[in-house]
Structure formats: C-alpha cells, structure tokens
Amino acid sequence: MVTVILLILSVISGVFLGKHFGKKEKLAKNLLILSAGFLITICLNEVFPQVYTAEPGSSLGIFVIIGVLLQMVLEALTKGFEHGHFHHHSDHNILPLALMVGLFIHAFIEGIPLANEEHQLSPYLWGIVFHNLPISFILGAFLFNRKDESKRTPSYPSLLIVALFALASPMGMLLGNYFNPDLQPYFLAIVGGIFLHISSVIIFESNKSHNIDWVKIGLVILGVSLALIMHLFHDHSHLEHHH
What we know:
Layout: H1 2-21, H2 25-54, H3 61-78, H4 97-111, H5 123-144, H6 156-176, H7 184-204, H8 214-233, H9 237-240
Helix pairs in contact: 1-5, 1-6, 2-5, 2-7, 2-8, 3-4, 3-7, 4-6
C-alpha cells in the first residue's frame, strides 16, 4: 500500500510543480539531470546485481538489451518526452495519443517488478519515484500551461491523462502479482535496460556549445551521491542467498 501511495504521490506532486513552475524549462532540465544521476546509480548498484546474481552465467543480458530497444521504440511514440524534449509537441493538442500510450506503457512496465520486491521501500522503488517527478513536472507544465487551458478549471482530458499516468505503475505492480516470481529477474533486466537508456541519454546529451557544464556535472554527482547513500543503508542480504 505504501508503494502505491508513493508512486501516485510522485506523479501528482510532479504535475503540481509543473503546473505552477512549468514555465521554468531550466528547472525541468535540472530535475531530469538529478534524477538521471540517481537512476543510473540505482541501475548499476541495485538492479543489475539483483539480475545477475539471480541466475549467474545466464543470458539475462539479452533482456537488458531488449529493455534498451523497447525504450527506443517507446521514444518513437513519446518523441523523447522522458528526457525533456517537450517542445516538439504542438500547443494545440491536449496530448498526442501516441505520447500518452508510450508514457503509459513505460510506467506500466516499470511497475511489474515491484510486485516481487522483498523490501517495501526498495531502492528500485525510489528510482521510479525520482524518475516520475521530472516526467510528471514536464507533463504538468505541458497540460496546464497551454494558452487554451484555463488555470481555474483544468479540463477533464488533462486530469484523466494525469490519473492514467499516476495509476500506470501501480497497475503494472498489480499484474506482476500474477506472474511466477521466478520471472522477476527478467522483468528487472528489461526495466534496467529502460533506465540505462533514459539516464545515459540525459547525462550524455551534449549542450549546444559543447563547453563543460559544471551545473550538470554537479547535479549528476548529487544524484549519484543520493543513490549511493540509499545503497549503503539498504539491506542487501537477499542478494547473498544466491551466491
């Protein structure tokens, strides 16, 4: 239950911030960079060790690659919305249907491995929460800062989109309960590939002038540090059972 509340809150709070501070595009970018540093660290320190200790010597790496490829396909639908490319989308649309489908599938798949997480507040969950905030911020900015959107009465389609996105990961988690727990490493590997792709695109995307961006480096280090602190305080005994 705590997991579901956290997932929904991460979307609602991100959308709320996006509605009120959405015109600050720099803030959205900085949130994304911070979350990318956090996400890539969670990926390398938590997700991948869990995947590879589950079945040592197996071909689970192929599922990581499937995750990377799947995210590339989803980005054909979302046009890079997950890493801040929201200027591609027309102000006249509420949201292109393809974008919504892409975001929903993305969040839904991330929710599936949560069904078999041994610890309620796992670093994997926090990875999704940190990842949801900037995407929801961009979503909120996009939905509620358009010229035709009255600030007093948000339109029903916009609220429906937020509700669908907020419920996507919990719905994935619900479906995950019906899968054989032995499939957990495979789903984790796929999501690991998705995380790896998104975070590396955000981190390695060069700025226009190709100068050293100290703010970006600082934000990545901050995100990495937060994830490392969480890694140090998290119980990893479940990994040792597989050795």
